[in-house]
Amino acid sequence: MRVSTAFNRMLDIPGGLVQDVSFTDQGVVVDVRLRKRRLRCPCGNTSKAVYDRKIRRWRHLDLGSTRCWLQTSIRRLDCVRCGRVRTEQVPWARPGARHTQDFEDVIGWLCQRTDRTTVTRLMRVTWRTVTRIVKRVVDGYVDNGRLDNLYRIGVDEICYRRGGRDYLTVVADHDTGRVVHVAEGRTQQALNSFFLDLGPERCAQVEAISMDMASIWKQPCATHIPQAQICFDPFHIIVWANQALDSVFRSKRRQHNSHKQWQRTRAAIRTGAENLSVSRRKLLEETNRNDQKLGQAWMLKEDLRDIYRTIPPSQADNYLNDWIERANNSQIQEFETLARRITKHKTGILNTIHQGISNGRSEGINAKIRLINKRGYGHHTAATLTTMIYLTLGKIIIPLPTK
After folding, report:
1. Residues near 339 by Cβ (< 8 Å), separated by ≥ 6?
2. Rounded-to-integer distance, Cα 355 and Cα 208, Å
3. What is the phi/psi pair of residue 89, to 5°?
4. Which of 402, 371, 398 is CA-nearest to residue 136?
5. Whether 389 contacts 180, CB under 8 Å
6. What mean pLDDT is reported for the chain?
7. CA end-to-end distance (rounded Å), the chain
8. I need a surface site. Which of 315, 376, 397, 399 has the fewest CB within 10 A?
9. What's the domain range around 374?
10. Would you place residue 192 in the very low, low, confident or very high pLDDT band (cuts 50, 70, 90)?
């Protein structure tokens, strides 16, 4: 069997035939001839007129411990559609790439699962090369199809640098857990850009959107998806209740004989009723007997938690109205203030209960983004982190050349 025949079967180069193989100091260089005579511009236009030629190489998957290069006499054409001279598109590599598509797909598949340092050592490329390859892989596999069939979405922001100044706005699909949009900043424009990409027809399909209580999200939603129900995240509501309870407890600190006793009592009232140990339950009962105001505050906090845990959605409206009335009549200033805040956001709270969604999906995605950022030892720009988010959390399926 001739060497060219063996390499044709072994490499299976799309759209190319192996003509010659040479072993050099740089590795194995495989001379390839294009099967088609017509030139194809990266824009899709075809032509027969050759402007000029030159030799070009592409890095391919290694042969054992030896680097492998594909080499061909590549042509340029004067593209009528582009209005300038451009290099023809070869079927085994993406436009502008110096690596084959198989090589780039392997790097993209590895970057979905491990850190870049490991990828650079395994594939023998630089960090910057990996960054450029990941960008091309994501551009090749992410399409507008990810914006189809969006009915329930969640929006949240994440700070990706120390100092709390650099944010990304992330939109996710509640039904699939897929990240469908990432924009730089924590502004109305960042969310508006998502709705503009979505278009009026797909915006009309959105039934619900979950978010925190930040006011910046409300105006874009009212403009583009007025029919969607806004659902406020339960986590932030319970945080408000815990903060009100802590404020009541801090005002009673002088009543405790020791700092250790104060710490034990604080831990007990912060614990949910379903998670109380025997000792903490006894301590809480003693605290309630000695201070009825603190006991009433703890009970209001627990009753508010019950609206998300035990109360049927059909009874949530009446239950919340009753809770607001009890909080207003409690003569506890902190919970009277909390009742006014909850009244202001009551519609969004009830929408969350009826829709059965929360920002838990978005918070989980944020945790994964922090892991991606840490695994990459930070990212110099928002664009590189955005690309990694799409690659890892955008449900991109990269086919390996071994399959």
Report:
1. 323, 324, 327, 328
2. 8
3. -90, 130
4. 398
5. no
6. 89
7. 25
8. 397
9. 146-232+358-393
10. very high
Single-letter code of the amino acid located at 278: V
Task: Read off the tokens for 38.
Answer: 């017509």
- Integer angstrom CA distances of residue 362 from 115, 172, 174, 263: 23, 7, 8, 33
- CA-based max dimension of the chain: 94
Residue 398 lies in a domain: no
Pairwise CA distance, residues 203 & 196, whole Å: 9
Co-location of 289 and 339 in the same domain: yes
Which pTM was predicted? 0.85
Q: Give tens-digit pLDDT for 104-140.
A: 999 999 999 999 889 999 999 999 999 999 999 999 9
CA separation for the pair 242, 304 (Å, rounded) = 10
Q: How many domains does the chain have?
A: 4
Angle at 112 between CA 110 and CA 117, to 5 degrees: 55
Residues 222 and 369 both lie in one domain: yes
Tell me which H or E stretch contains 58.
strand 52-63
DSSP 363-396: HHHHHHHHHHHHHTT--SSHHHHHHHHHHHHS--
Does 289 lie in the same domain as 271? yes
What's the whole-number mean pLDDT along residues 266-281?
83
Whether residues 178 and 249 fall in one domain: no
Alpha-carbon span 24 to 73, nearest angstrom:
18
Chain centroid to CA 259? 43
157: tokens are: 């922001």
> Nearest-CA neighbor of 355 among 178, 224, 230?
230
d(CA 155, CA 158): 10
134 touches 99 (CB < 8 A):
no
Q: How many CA atoms lie within 13 A of 116 on its CB side?
A: 21
Calpha distance 182→354 (Å, rounded): 28
CB 232 within 8 A of CB 345: yes
- For residues 89-94, average pLDDT: 89
SS3 label, residue 337:
helix
The Cα 364–Cα 5 span in angstroms is 51
